[in-house]
Design brief:
The complex is a heterodimer of chains A (331) and B (331).
Chain A (H helix, E strand, L loop, with lengths): L2 E3 H15 L3 E5 L15 H5 L4 E3 L4 H13 L3 E5 L10 H14 L9 E6 L14 H5 L5 E3 L4 H13 L4 E6 L6 E3 L13 E4 L4 E5 L3 H14 L4 E5 L2 E3 L3 H11 L2 E8 L4 H13 L8 E5 L8 H4 L6 H12 L8
Parallel strand pairs in A: 2-3, 2-4, 4-5, 5-7, 6-7, 10-11, 10-13, 13-14
Antiparallel strand pairs in A: 1-8, 6-12, 9-11
Helix pairs in contact in A: 1-6, 3-4, 7-11, 8-9
Chain B lengths: L2 H37 L14 H8 L7 E3 L5 H6 L4 H8 L34 H13 L6 E6 L6 H12 L4 E7 L2 E2 L2 E2 L8 H6 L4 E6 L3 H16 L5 E6 L19 H10 L2 H11 L5 H24 L16
Parallel strand pairs in B: 1-2, 2-3, 3-7, 6-7
Antiparallel strand pairs in B: 4-5
Helix pairs in contact in B: 1-2, 1-10, 1-11, 2-8, 4-11, 5-6
The chains are: A alpha/beta (331), B alpha/beta (331).
Chain lengths: 331, 331
Amino acid sequence: MREITLSQAVNEALAEEMRRDETVFIIGEDVADAGTPFKVLSGLVEEFGTTRVVDTPIAEPGFMGIAVGAAMTGTRPVVDLMFGDFIFLVMDQLCNQAAKTHYMSGGKLNVPLVLRTNLGATRRSAAQHSQSLHALVAHIPGLKVALPSSAYEAKGLMKTAIRDNNPVVIFEDKLMYQEKAPVPEEEFLIPFGQANVTREGTDITLIATSSMVQVAEKAAVILATEGISAEVIDPRTIVPLDEETLLNSVKKTSRAIVIDEGHQSYGVTSELASRLNEKAFYHLDAPVLRMGAMDVPVPFSPALEDLTVPIPEAVAANARRLVAGELIHAA
Amino acid sequence: MNAAKNSDSAKHNTEGYLRMYRQMVRIRSFEDNANQLYLSAKMPGLTHMYSGEEAVAVGICEALRVTDKITSTHRGHGHCVAKGADFQEMFCELLGKEEGYCRGKGGSMHIADQSNGNLGANAIVGGSMGIATGAAFTAKLLGKDEVTVCFFGDGATAQGLLYEVMNMAALWNLPVIYACENNGYSEYTRTEEIAAGSITARAKAFGIEAHTVDGQDVLAVNALTRQLVDRCRKGEGPFFMELMTYRYHGHHVGDINREYYRSKDEEKQWRDNKDPITTFGRYLTKEGIVTSDELDAIQAEIKTDASKAVEYALNAKYPDSSEVDMHVFAT
């Protein structure tokens, strides 16, 4: 199978959906000729013109609000938010307006929009361009949240997001834009709410999202050399969540670590760990462990920044101790 | 101008004028009943009265087609009635009943009536400015000749979102009319204390044509709106209107002792001398369009309609408990 970058995969998904449905349009800062700073959208304006690849002023709440109104009246906007950190700027339009409109109108109004943005530290961009803020929006009923972990995932999830009749927030891992993966030429979609078991195992379950799927897989390779069989699961979407696949795995392995690049406290790792504790307690041989980003603003200095996110060796070390029956006092 | 043409246009005006009179009375009657429901503790929560501002909503909405869109505010009952909503479904919504416009999930501050182009009231001050601009964006993108009117109060001009979306609306010539209902008070504070400079100058800074009009004169509001709507349909939008008006009640129905920010004498002056319904009724009788007996009959008929709708709503059923998690997501 051919291999393309995550960036190309997103670009293809958008182009295919824009050809399929003339109500789909892209709106955001520097999306047209610039194709975004990450060049993810390069070439789209040539095919679809500036009426459908719409450059905006630097006014995130404004273009987010315009997208909400456009979605309510018969279009499918794809909002480009240059950095995930800027999500704080659009919170009212996203969480008070887009997320609630369908419910507050008793099901009469829909907001079929996609907010595509990114997450991920270690790009030496400091505290306002490095956050992984998906837990914030996953907390709000009415928003779906997708976390692609490869080029293949990014394409399939984006196409599903565009066709969904709800507001969907997709966080791409900005460190993965140039990373290649096998992606079929023929059309495919990845349904929401279906976790992907990327590696089967019997001793411990590593549940990992987005950027952390590769970390978990590398940890599993390390553990395999020591005779520990780790299962790796990518939930793909945290809203909706495929709880069943996670529970079935934990019931089989009796141990789990949840790994996610958002801050650990009150985050995705906490939510998933709680669900496993509540629903698989009697199957567990050890407490479910959380591994998130450190609860510090992301520091600039490489010497410090690298300490803030989970790495394969740390995941493997924790897994080793859980399997050995050691009690771990989590951070 | 020949006699036949004269009598034709008089006939046309008579129908239009009576409809405007009737719609203003309907709003007043709706609000009087809503206020009573609050005072008699039959309505859950609070509500914000539109009484006194009727000529604004009616003058504007009578210049619109059913397919044209509006966005409304927390003080939104007037807009909703003026855009064509029925009493029964509105009162049901205010009382949280299943037959309400939003199945009781929105309440007073979130009534939406998409069948008449009302995209919804909004409980975030200024929250719908993006939505209105987005609806106008849809019209332009899909080549429809629809116009959107964005209602908001003078208090909402303090929100930054307005300036972001006016900038984009002006850049893209969107068919949207920003209708600022200036009732002189920003919640419990005189607007002159919170708004520097002039309100219309804010729009003019973006090159948007701005008008100030007497918001108590339904014919003046209607004439200006007709002209601006026509020009919007020709691609000459956006426009800005500042409508000078007055709210008879406090910020909300519970804001009863308000002399610390507004004198009773001032309120009396507006009610006695500038009431939009009384003034227009006097004009209609003076011009011989209708007799005062006929106006009384209209008032009585609407009063009966409103009482019946209230009675119906009080006896209507609440939504079934199974509805609580229905409509979080669209299918």
